[in-house]
């Protein structure tokens, strides 16, 4: 106890009450308190002792709960259970700035229920009242820490910082701030500053570092590290940015650089989506609080070409007790090298995991261990996997009754031991071996019997760790060969289409086996006794087995063989998107169509640009793992797919042909809908969507118009996507909606040298109103250099954002949502594509009547100088006129000197979050010739047309 504590009130007089406890508490002269600017806390500032009560649970508040209220001391005050208070300067003559010393008597009879055993907090404010405070510190020593003791006294600070019950500490309980620090001047292991800083300035009284108060308002700061978790092309990505201090809530925005194509960030700081291209992407993000003040930070995301996958099997190879074990865990994809870490569970005692994935050591105990490993690649992409490992103690696997031997017939049998630490040494410890058997330390019994009889003997096996196990054996030598017998097999469970292999065994020198009742697809090799093949049927089969030798056949034995069916989610029709990759598919992306059968067969079609690969084969299936397709073949892409039957999805990779070829990812889904038993009711209907270019960075001219498309989803889940790109190319995709609303778009273009491809998602309205179903997602668009007037240099790959909503039940003759209202005028707008260089503005006001007619100003009038026309075709129910409700089209004319340009445009009604914009589309505008250009060879650029109201 420090000498200055004896200057306090006389503790003995306070301890005379049978039901009272005394707490001495101080900032002493070793450490004091400083303001935010470093000057010592002034005399008269409030110091409080107590604990913080959670108003909901009644228990103690967590650090995070306290920190969340640190800018509102009055709210904290309502949750504070006070045991005592003092002021800075108290207990010293003369009073000392930044320091205090006090003694508090606690009546445990009346307040014990609120205080006994609770975590003790010291709450210091820079004013005499809570409401006047502008700075504060909140400090405690965790009462859970009863081992750390930096000041070396008999009672650990963790014990002294819990409110005592009467009698737990005879006399007084003393706490002081020296408890919180180590000799090096840093916070001790059990010490916590919930609010405040340490060290902060130096005490004028002692020269030691003070505990600093913190302003109630601290400027916001970014808590998320600069290097964000990595992602992979086509895989779902989610990463939340976090800010601290300031005044929540925070609003986030990207202020520089660019997120990877395919990702977007919400105002809450959540970055999500599916990355489209691999690479290292740097961007600047800013968080603004409610004051508002802001803070910015640069972040980096690395996107790998393929997902990071742990490839080591979940059930690790068995180890032996006291036997050296070494296994390298393996992974693929991502960006090597990989770093491994144990995140839960426990390794077998004696084993360790190296950061490079080497699991090694000498397990000292037998049993099974379960644990979870995390693998992190060089781009901060992470994945985890649960493993099990069995450590086998030393045991003898060979049964007590050995196979019969026969007079003058050569006999050989090798005894088998498991577990422990090899090599094994066998010795005879009791009884006698048959005549002619030479003792073998390797456990081999080999001889030509010359006498008949029964021998009983005990053998011991000893491993390299000197562990021993014994077993008594019986070996019978018969005069002549007798009929064989079959060892009743215990067949493992088989699965349709999965490889199966099991070896039959018997006694008395069987030379042939017979098995009847096997499932179709499994056959027996009569000589070796091996049953193998791939079952083509499911069910439970009773297999009849016999063994034969030169004497007679054995009795029939019966064994049960179960063949499971393939999981429902593994059989059917799948569709998938292939991610863009410059080496694998020239950044065109691709489409995968897969059909699997209930016998494990598959037919696969891979389309990447002009190259179409069709494959057939058998899946790798088992009763314990997911069905897989692996197709390695010389000169063709290597395809590796895994089907997740539970989620009706598939993932995988496609690797280009040749050594060292790069890989790209595949993600797809199974067709789960049918109109009778599982209709796609929540998705069915007619949708429209706008397709806008959003990514920058392409120095070449790019289309500025908005592409559009319609999507029709039937009750059986069938999907038809029809539309136009912003440069007039047709989009046609047929497929089916995924189990979670996934849609595939894949359109080869420009003689298969370009494409528009990607995945969209249909999202049912959260309120159950199908009319508010939305469609969204990301596509990429690549155009090669061509000999044409429209973007001859090519562009992309460009990132396109897709937006839209439900339009109608069906596209022919049904009422369409989102049409312009007849109650007010609407505006037809044209922008981009070089239209601003014309002397004529073709924008025009119009009225859309209740009769579904467009009324425009007179062609060529002052209100319509561009001679703009507009048609919004509409077919009423039950009309079967072929066409798409929700389309629009028209034309306008630009005259600039001697240059006259007649331009057409088209688009679609697209519902968005902003109801004032009704429709989007594009026009293709020949540019005003710049010599030596002429009106027949000047560039043609794409601009946007929209309808607003």
What layout of secondary structure does this protein have?
Elements: H1 11-14, E1 20-26, E2 33-34, E3 46-52, H2 63-68, H3 73-77, E4 80-87, E5 101-107, H4 108-115, E6 121-125, E7 135-141, H5 157-160, E8 172-176, E9 191-195, E10 197-202, E11 209-212, E12 214-215, E13 221-222, E14 231-232, E15 237-240, E16 243-244, E17 251-257, E18 263-265, E19 270-273, E20 279-288, E21 294-304, E22 309-310, E23 319-320, E24 325-328, E25 331-332, E26 339-345, E27 351-353, E28 358-361, E29 367-376, E30 382-392, E31 395-396, E32 405-406, E33 411-414, E34 417-418, E35 425-431, E36 444-447, E37 453-462, E38 468-478, E39 485-486, E40 494-495, E41 499-503, E42 506-507, E43 512-516, E44 522-525, E45 530-534, E46 539-548, E47 557-564, E48 572-578, H6 582-585, E49 590-596, E50 601-608, E51 611-618, E52 628-631, E53 638-644, E54 649-655, E55 663-670, E56 685-693, E57 707-713, E58 718-724, E59 730-736, E60 742-749, E61 754-763, E62 774-783, E63 795-808, E64 826-831, E65 844-848, E66 854-855, E67 869-871, E68 887-896, E69 899-909, E70 917-926, E71 940-948
Parallel strand pairs: 1-8, 2-11, 14-21, 23-30, 32-38, 40-47
Antiparallel strand pairs: 1-5, 3-4, 3-6, 6-7, 7-9, 7-12, 10-11, 13-16, 15-19, 17-20, 18-19, 20-21, 22-25, 24-28, 26-29, 27-28, 29-30, 31-34, 33-36, 35-37, 37-38, 39-42, 41-45, 43-46, 44-45, 46-47, 48-49, 48-55, 49-50, 50-51, 52-53, 53-54, 54-55, 56-57, 56-63, 57-58, 58-59, 60-61, 61-62, 62-63, ...
